[in-house]
Write a structure and sequence with these properties.
Keywords: FAD, Flavoprotein, Monooxygenase, Oxidoreductase
CATH class of the largest domain: Alpha Beta
Helix content: 25-40%
Organism: Pseudonocardia adelaidensis
InterPro entries: FAD-bd (IPR002938), FAD/NAD-bd_sf (IPR036188), RIFMO-like (IPR050641)
GO molecular function: monooxygenase activity
CATH architecture of the largest domain: 3-Layer(bba) Sandwich
Largest sheet: 7 strands, mixed
Bound molecules: flavin-adenine dinucleotide
Shape: globular
CATH topology of the largest domain: FAD/NAD(P)-binding domain
Cofactor: FAD
CATH superfamily of the largest domain: FAD/NAD(P)-binding domain
Low-confidence stretches: none
Length: 504
């Protein structure tokens, strides 16, 4: 594994959980301490719950009002509740805190990140990959590049990374204020209330940390004429941030300290192929885009969730190598959709939201977002909850995420997400007598259970459900006698080849 950002850390956790011997190399000596990704969306919250990480995340989250999501900063809250999620607001947690939580979990699973270790070369052969790192060599059967938007691995394998260069420039900075004018938000409300234009700038300012109701740090994301003129590599300065604060929030808003700052653009690119032999790509190494709508970090976590169990199955010899191709087949379209959605939002939100040609478009999108169906559609798009992988089965449940139902089992009441904590697949028998759990094949446990009432509903509309380790439905049986043998082979062997009679 190359890179200990959120993608690399979470993927390493997935592999270690499945018993894979994993090495993680990271160029930096210490964690960055940079907030960058501002939080996890609804689907990532579900994913973290499936691995028992959600409590640690919510403990360190930034308190926020339950005000719904957004599309392009428009002032129409998006309601994710129709998607039957337990986390309709997502969770606001700065990326550095999430990385700490993931690195702690990884240590608990017995893996230490090898810091100050930069990958500088690699060679792959028929058995594995040999990486040259700053202090020697590391050999593994596979290498996963989680080394971010400037991926060295991408360059080393000559991977095609098509897309477009950026056309706008902006700054993201973590700051402290000596004094805050009236317009500075004191709590985290709907994102549209934290976004303001002023003096030729736009700025999103929101509380980041603090104790006892006192805000200590803010995150300021802004752009204006100076940012458009500065090169991408120019360091972000306190004077630059102070000028933007004054322009947008007036002279009463005074900067005390710039913790860190970075420049970003709306460049967007995506790897043509996520797999190059024994080298796979995940997270920003595979796709970059404007960080609007909080998608990048979430895409990376969910890439990791999709790849982890597949790679673990192949390394353990349970699944054929062909299963790895389904990682590209499933995740490439998801990121392509996010890139398209981000570009659509960029047109509406930047750089001049009041331009006449955009105003009409904003009004139309807002009108549509006020309609229940339009709101649900956009909420599904932005939350990651609408993702449905094409698993070759027209049943609308197959390929969609499994609802986190409460279940009564022989061992008591539990939830789907709690049953997934071990990272194994589930065959839920919802119409059979309660009985002990047993493995059917490929690390899938058969669990006889009854759906019990919970905030996400009382039914799934099937008698039997195959849930993959990443929480997506691999197959449903409408009748108790239907058998998942072929679907098991398709999910875990990567093709619907004739399956052995697995279930007896
Ligand atoms: C200003 C800004 C704001 C953002 N806001 C949001 C947001 O609100 N919501 C959201 O979801 N996303 C946001 N993002 C995007 C998010 O930060 C990224 O999508 C996320 O960091 C991707 O995680 P990653 O693990 O794939 O890559 P990274 O976090 O970039 O991690 C890559 C790691 O690899 C290491 N590395 C690189 N090269 C090597 C090498 N050769 N050898 C060893 N190690 C190496 C790096 O040091 C780094 O630790 C934002 C990004 C920026 C820049």
């Amino acid at each position: 594994m190359v890179g200990a950002g959120p993608t690399g850390l979470f993927l390493a956790c997935e592999l270690a959980l499945a018993g894979v011997d994993v090495a993680v190399v990271e160029r930096e000596a210490v964690p960055s301490g940079q907030s960058r990704g501002g939080g996890v969306n609804q689907r990532s919250a579900e994913v973290l719950a499936m691995r028992g990480l959600l409590d640690a995340v919510t403990e360190r989250a930034v308190p926020r009002e339950s005000v719904g999501g957004h599309f392009a900063f428009l002032p129409v809250p998006l309601d994710a509740r129709p998607w039957r999620t337990r986390y309709p607001d997502g969770i606001m947690i700065p990326q550095d805190r999430l990385e700490q939580i993931l690195e702690t979990r990884l240590r608990e699973l017995g893996v230490r990140v090898r810091r100050s270790t930069e990958l500088v070369g690699l060679v792959q052969d028929s058995d594995g990959v040999e990486a040259t790192v700053s202090d020697g060599r590391v050999r593994g059967r596979y290498l996963v590049a989680c080394d971010g938007g400037h991926s060295a691995v991408r360059k080393l394998v000559g991977a095609d990374f098509p897309g477009q260069a950026g056309t706008m420039a902006a700054v993201s900075a973590d700051i402290e204020l000596a004094s805050a004018g009236e317009t500075v938000p004191r709590t985290v409300g709907h994102i549209s209330t934290m976004m303001r234009p002023g003096g030729g700038y736009w700025m999103m300012l929101h509380p980041l940390d603090g104790e006892g109701g006192r805000v200590a740090g803010y995150r300021a994301v802004f752009g204006g004429p100076p940012q458009a003129a500065l090169p991408r590599t120019a360091p972000v300065t306190a004077d630059e941030v102070a000028a933007a604060l004054t322009a947008v929030h007036g002279p009463d808003t005074v900067l005390a300290r710039l913790r860190w700052g970075t420049r970003f653009s709306d460049a967007h690119r995506q790897l043509a192929q996520y797999r190059h032999g024994r080298v796979l790509f995940a997270g920003d190494a595979a796709h970059i885009h404007l960080p609007i709508g909080g998608q990048g970090l979430n895409l990376g976590l969910q890439d990791a969730m999709n790849l982890g169990w597949k790679l673990a199955g192949v390394v353990a010899g349970r699944s054929p190598e062909a299963l790895l191709d389904t990682y590209h087949d499933e995740r490439h379209p998801v990121a392509a959709r996010v890139l398209a959605t981000v570009r659509a939002q960029r047109v509406i939100a930047f750089p001049s939201p009041e331009a006449d040609d955009v105003r009409g478009l904003r009004e139309i999108v807002m009108d549509m977002a006020r309609l229940p169906d339009g709101n649900e559609y956009l909420a599904g798009l932005m939350s990651g909850l609408a993702i449905r992988y094409d698993l070759g089965d027209p049943d609308p449940l197959v390929g969609a995420r499994m609802i986190d139902l409460a279940l009564g089992t022989q061992d008591g009441v539990t939830t789907v997400s709690a049953l997934l904590r071990a990272g194994r697949g589930l065959l839920l028998d919802l119409d059979a007598p309660l009985a002990p759990v047993h493995e059917v094949a490929w690390g899938v446990d058969r669990i006889p259970a009854r759906v019990v009432g919970s905030p996400v509903g009382t039914d799934v509309g099937a008698a039997r459900v195959l849930v993959r380790p990443d929480g997506y439905v691999g197959w449903v049986g409408r009748e108790p006698h239907e058998r998942p043998d072929a679907a098991l082979a398709r999910c875990f062997a990567g093709s619907a080849q004739e399956a052995p009679a697995l279930l007896g």
